[in-house]
Batch of 2 targets.
Target 1
Amino acid sequence: MIIHSKLKPEQVRLERLLRLIAALINAPRFLSIEELQTKVGLAKGQGEAGYPSDLTAARRAFHRDMNELTALGVPVIRGRAKVSEKDTWGYRIRKQDYSLPEMDIASDELAALHRATTAVRFHGISGAEALWKLGGQVGEGTDTELAAVPMYPCLADLFRAITEQRTVSFDYSGQPRSVEPWTLAFDQGHWYLMGFDHTRQDKRTFRVDRMVGQVELGRPNGFKQPADAPRWVSIQPWRLGNQPEITAQLWVDAEQVSLASRRLGQEPEIIKDDGSAVFTVQVNNVNAFRSVVLEFLEQAEILKPLKLRTDFVRWLEKINK
Amino acid sequence: MVGEDQQMSRLSARDRLGRMLELVPWVMSQGGAEIDEIARRFDYPSDELREDLSRVLFMVGLYPFTPDQLINVIELDTSDDNDKTQNVDIQSANHQKAKVDRIAISNAEYFSRPLRLTPAQALSLIGAAKALLTDTHSDSPLTRGLDKLASGLKMSGDEDLKVNLGDAPQEWIQTLLRAVQNHLKVQIRYFSYGRGQITDRIIQPHRVFSETGNLYVRAHCEWADGIRVFLIDRIKKLHITTERFDPPDQTNPPSAFQPRDEDPRVVLELAPEAAWVLEKYPVEHYEQHSDGNIQLTMPVSEVRRLEVLLLQLGTHAVLQSVEGALRMDLPKKAAQRVLRKYL
């Protein structure tokens, strides 16, 4: 004999939520909560899925359900619905908003993505949930995490703005900015947004963690990224400044040449017989450049220009006093 | 008998819904699937999955909920060679005969596509893939997966999103990750910043990690006979060996700065504009005075690192006290060494 135990409360809830989504996707127009009572069904007794027959209670239950759907990213839209000549709010899901586009990701590709999401985690985002949408978790993840990347609430909005070509507005250093976003970059431990700043009428780079308050998104396809938009280059503090550009020559000891190449993001211009090398560096921020040079202590020397050299010496002499 | 309450890690309604909305389209696209396979892919304990398929999904459908409007959960009978497919209660089938291990789902066209990725999920998937790929044009499963994702999401190009975890040769990272996974010793030539010298070492890498824009490997160093953290960027040569090592029982959450008890401490007073030091250095204790100046205590594991910091800060920092072998004239001496180049 088979004895059916009652459904668990979370199963009853699951059934109602699934029915609700089914009804909303199939809705030809906005459905009011009253109509949803019918379309989802009424719960006549305990342990039965559906909405209460009392409209106020049903409304409460519906809004609780909506919280769950929102948390999962189910795109429910709201509009006017007409019920027995009364104008009221109604709800529906448009299939095109709901559905993942066809991607046809193969099994080995899914396994590679699985390894990637376990090696590089983004704070507060479940890589597993994202993978379910692509066909589930395949293969083994790595058991060693390479990096945990910080996330800020506005990052998802900024990323969406880039993919949908929407202008973004935000407050930065106490000023409102309106920007056509081109690139979002995680570099040297920080998130940056690069794009065209309407206020300054020029290309600008912003630290995402310094954006204040909400990021407002403009309409989709609100701008077109120029074909010759600059590519992202790794953040170089000595380039971030409004000072007139100086061309500096920096000598670096042989031991430090490969490290300096990566640090400066360029190859040396001259390599000497003893393996030491000279780099030519464009500088827009003298203080930042001094800090980089000091990382190499006595294994580096500013050769040119003279002014930069004497300022550097003066800085050190103050310490030596 | 095990009561309901004793079941481990019961899934909430949202947990179940999140999985169900994605597994139904997958099973439909496959024309049926093994229960165990679904459970694995969607992290759904298989007993719960069986029950939710047979008793919950089976009851989902459209108004007026007549049988033709309900979702079909079909047992695919793999033991018989006929195509006798029928709606079954998987739970009761459980008791009657061999366990149902393969199912198909139909009459659920509205659930035939997975839910779109949220922008945060898309960012994390593409970001994770990009972080591991420096050459996005090479052909690998990861590159192909990334391409399909990017075109599905209508991303305009490679420049939309960049994730740079640190400057280091890509193949070294891959090699070190392989060494960590397979417990293989690695031979490195390393420039020690603290000593200002190059050494050849055998290391047992425990973990590769990125922190504040640098990539590190944490390892047992046989040369130093202790746990050390190496900046991958300062490795001059690297060679993976075939010699295995015993992995550590447990690796602590990694951190680039691993102050040891025996590290000497220094006390610094910083001007307000040097407050960034608090973020970037392993400060153990600090307080801000009413004039805005900050007094902090930090361990020094590499003297050279402290020298660099003090020269960078210049007059924005004053050394207030030192311990151990450190001297109060440390910044002066360092400045003199650098100045000698400029004579």
Note: Chain A touches chain B through 119 residues (CB under 8 Å).
Target 2
Amino acid sequence: MLRQSFQKELEGLHSQLLGMGGRIEQMLHLSLDTLRTGNEQSAIQVEEMEIVIDAMAAEIDTVAIELIAKQQPVGQDLRRIIGAMRLAVDMERVADISTNIVEQSRLLPRPLIKPLIDIPKMVDVAAGMLQDSLNALINSDVNLALDVWKRDDIVDELCERIVVELRSMMTADGSIVPKALPLLIIAIQIERIADHATNLAESVMFIATGKRVVTL
Amino acid sequence: MVESKHKVGFRDVSIFYGRLQVVKHVSAEIPEKEITAIIGPSGSGKSTPLRSLNRMNDHIGGMRITGEAIIDDQNIYAAGVDVVRLRRKVGMVFQRPNPFPKSIYENVAYGPKLQGLRTKADLDIIVENSLRQAALWDEVKDRLHASGFDLSGGQQQRLCIARSLAVGPEVLLMDEPASALDPAATAKIEELMLMLKRTLTLIVVTHNMQQAARVSDRTAFLLGGELAEYDVTRKIFTAPQDKRTDDYISGKMG
């Protein structure tokens, strides 16, 4: 095979991304654990992982820039590298958001003002989107990526519902604002995770097809 | 990067052809088992230092060298250096493939035979090993006695590499080894170079910057006979320190 060593380097970049993806999934679940139970152990773990993720993102960026400079990739090779850079940025943001969720969960006075119903639903959908966008990356599965992209609407609706509910609760009783605000922020953060999962899916489609979602 | 042993060195080397100075005070240490690329505009004195490493410039009238060209801690221009032995240790591959007008087998066996090796069994082994090392064996094993000229350009170049390898060099000098080849044959030569560096130190002159970027570990940028910049290749091609290097690699100069 021609340019075997370059293909190996591309595969190396790919496995770095998958390693990063596995970690951010774990971080999201740990941050949800912190939200549900206030478990400080999980919170600390998320914060430690965030440092690792930052380093991984920087490494992917460096490798990608070097590969572009050294290999002058074109076609799908170029898309794989550009795609890797975009994927790393979105993954790194998901890691940041997970730490934000942890921070807000710590601020959350317990017991909670209401049972967590819609937020866990949101997390389930967002985590599923994240997982499937990574599966789509592993298998170059454009259909799965497209499916992830469509699921963003579900998260948006759930988020809207939570915002409306908390707003009316806060309007009715101003004293619950300190208890409600962190939940509101967390809901919006999870909505952002779904947005990043959507971006991941878009990058996967870009790598596989060279097309943008709107033109598919 | 782990600092490995230096195989080749230039210590304040200047080279003159008559009154013309083509290499100006070049100093560089070249690690073993790496690929070092020499880049620079035409006429910047890339080939001259390369050729000086197996003393191929010796026969050029009026050639004079100052400073030290070092291989394995020895100044190869010192009195008493055995040039024949030096050239066995330091092989050379040229821009245009130049097989001898002989069979594939004889091309590779030529050097070992010159060294006095006569046993067919031994020669067979060397020929096969060298052709394997040059990634050519599978393509020619059934026609070893066909003429070297029957091969494609890319195959001829790999034949010339096999011919160099047959005498067991430790350093391989390559002067634009792929500039006469198409992209597919070029890619094969580059893959071959990456394989060879496991055992050899390679120094390649190339006007093809992309090639330098793709294959080399270190890059030397020569300009007007001076070493403008010398560093690990990823630095040269992502963040060169010298503005002239940046201008050259980005096509604004040369």
Note: The CA atoms of residues 104 and 148 of chain B lie 5 Å apart.
